[in-house]
């Protein structure tokens, strides 16, 4: 523990932290805002663990704030850079992270620090224990000898069905899963699973090898594969490349089906009780009780508990909020005064083909969005969950519904349910379309295309200003004057402008195409 000297030792919260509202430069102390009131110290620490050692913590629950001190400024910068485009979530609530004006934290003389210090000590003990990155790992440049990013998984005692989606949800808690191939060999259900990096594979093997998905059965045996990369030909129930939405289902293969609820609805499936570092909201909540502890790993913190149950068959849980692998998303916390089915169709259509949208008749801040398939739903969720839309922070998760039902004839609907399955505005209907390669998170810079030669810089700048946006920069492409980049005042302004102006009629049979850009003018 490193208790250094800040201006935080006099017990006056208002004076101590007033300056943190407008940090100007990187610091190893980070200011976390809008943390849930019931969040634990361990959950807050978990946000920092993947980026380095957490050396101090100060919780201000009454203000829904916390201060996290990292061991180095470099670790803090990496953490802020990661979470800026990908808003982390704690207990389904987005958390905002920025640099603090404090250079270090001193909490020795502050009250109510016992729990924070105990949590930090537990983390440090764990990091130096079973899952420590040993000197052997360090000597090999961060990798164990022969270790790669592909794991071979054998599921023994297969009493219940284990689907590709179940494996994805379990292994995603340890890092970014790129590809999965499942097969049966020697009468055993097996899988090959590729992570984005070898250390995620290492942590997953250490944390999951020998553990059972369900109580007393479906035991995981995990080894490193000799393969360095997986080649996936088809996206279906047996194989999946999460980086490629354009892959076919395969001859004779049925299209992707939403996962069976029973595969996810069991009180003894391995899952942490809160969102991991990637900001994924857990699919289930579990009752507290006796359980088997799995060694903790960076990014999940503390023990993952496999809750025991007297039930001998899978059964639904009251905490279920959706079915991962489903193509229907539940979107909540919308602004009912501003949002429309068309607006949601355009926004979510950036990340996949939207087939149906339903804004709830009696609770208009909620909506269901049916995507073309589960992979597109996952991409839309990961890019739009936590995004600000018309002044409110949008929440997205998988729905328990497997499809969006159209209203019955004569049923009052007020135009809140729309079918877009045959819309000409779908971006991904052509197999192998370049649009698959140009999916980016919401950004303040928009890419414009299909611009007629008669459209001038001033005309286009005024068009975007008419949506309430502040135009900061504009540039036509030198080699193609039909395309341009426009930078607006904020990401939220760009989201609103995209919704309003995508497919805008510019005349001469040209309809404007708008998407988010990774570039900055």
How does this model look, in words?
By secondary structure, the protein is α+β, with helices and mostly antiparallel strands. The protein contains 12 helices and 27 strands. The chain folds into 4 domains: 115 residues, Alpha-Beta Plaits (2-Layer Sandwich), CATH 3.30.70; 158 residues, Alpha-Beta Plaits, CATH 3.30.70; 92 residues, Alpha-Beta Plaits (2-Layer Sandwich); 77 residues, 2-Layer Sandwich (Alpha-Beta Plaits), CATH 3.30.70.330. A hairpin with a 2-residue loop joins β25 and β26. The longest helix has 14 residues.
Strand order of the largest sheet: 10-11-7-9-8-12
* Rounded average pLDDT: 75
Total beta-strand segments: 27
Compute the number of structural domains. 4
Strand content: 15-25%
- Return the CATH class of the largest domain: Alpha Beta
CATH level 4 superfamily of the largest domain: RRM (RNA recognition motif) domain
